[in-house]
Write a structure and sequence with these properties.
Elements lengths: L1 H4 L7 H18 L12 H8 L7 H6 L28 E6 L5 H7 L14 E7 L5 H11 L3 E5 L1 E4 L3 E6 L19 H5 L4 E8 H8 L5 E6 L5 H10 L8 E4 L13 H13 L13
Parallel strand pairs: 1-2, 1-7, 2-3, 4-6, 7-8
Antiparallel strand pairs: 5-6
Helix pairs in contact: 3-10, 9-10
Length: 289
């Protein structure tokens, strides 16, 4: 709890959280698929894990982030082809999914996501991921300004696997940075914009975490991806890379935007399992970020 209340990490938190999660799973399975009463888990987490008689077992986790007719690819929690991050010096890592023109990143620079002077080793880096090609220019400007500290993935949608996908543009919400652009054709702003579509690349958050972060980092993920969180978060819960996140700022959108067919019970279980592994998921909403 103390680690979650602090703005920056406690030493060894991630390793401890991972060990606690593994122990909880072992005890849960030994108890017939449910969290044993002796496992010390926050009551809210226990309730979420066992909601609707959902059982904490391999079968439950296997179906999270599965295939669906609308999905461009299937959840990829790990791959032997990924190269583990070789960096040694820890840092703050800000991963901005739905980066728009860099407005959230600039808020990060001014301390809105925590004081930069408290970053491990006094260093930071940022990954800015944005699917809407309208923002290619502004994001290129941020990369040119900050050089090696900022890594931009333009015309790229954050997801749970790699490939390409159709991306529907919001062309009407000018004052809110066209915030309703989405991978889902069900999004109200995509519909009101006439389902104007472009083809963009997909990036896998699990791979980015595995290849670009280390346990000693303080990792912040800002996720405002207009419904794709319903697909990304359950896949993240299946991946060891999920434990590398310290704080997940996730804006939640209607569940009918899922491409994997994720249910509310699935999402509750995924969030609860991430929290049990030490990921702080505060309430998050922004008018434009």
């Amino acid at each position: 709890l103390e680690c979650r209340l602090r703005q920056l990490p406690c030493s060894g938190k991630k390793a401890l959280a991972g060990a606690m999660f593994a122990a909880a799973l072992t005890l849960a399975l030994a108890a017939g698929g449910r969290l044993a009463e002796g496992v010390k888990v926050d009551p809210a987490l226990r309730g979420a894990l066992e909601a609707n008689d959902t059982r904490l077992n391999a079968t439950t986790f296997a179906h999270l982030g599965g295939s669906h007719d609308q999905a461009p690819c299937q959840c990829t929690p790990s791959s032997p082809t990924w190269a583990r991050c070789a960096r040694v010096e820890p840092a703050c890592v800000f991963i901005d999914l739905g980066a728009a023109d860099g407005n959230s990143f600039n808020s990060f620079l001014t301390g809105a996501y925590g004081p930069l002077q408290n970053c491990p080793s006094g260093k930071w880096m940022a990954f800015l991921v944005e699917a809407n090609p309208r923002f290619n220019g502004p994001l290129a400007g941020e990369q040119a300004k900050w050089k090696q500290a900022v890594h931009v993935m333009s015309s790229t949608a954050a997801f749970a696997c790699e490939g390409t996908t159709t991306f529907y543009l919001d062309t009407t919400n000018h004052a809110q940075n066209y915030w309703g652009s989405s991978m889902s054709p069900n999004h109200v702003d995509a519909k009101s914009s006439g389902l104007q579509a472009v083809v963009v690349n997909l990036m896998n958050l699990n791979r980015l975490l595995f290849e670009q972060t280390i346990p000693a980092d303080w990792v912040m993920v800002k996720m405002d991806i207009e419904g794709a969180e319903w697909d990304v978060v359950p896949c993240l819960a299946k991946s060891d890379a999920g434990s590398l996140i310290d704080r997940l700022y996730m804006e939640k959108h209607p569940g009918d935007l899922t491409l994997f067919g994720t249910t509310q019970a699935d999402m509750n279980l995924a969030e609860a399992s991430l929290k049990l592994r030490g990921v702080d998921i505060p309430q998050y909403y922004s008018d434009t970020l």
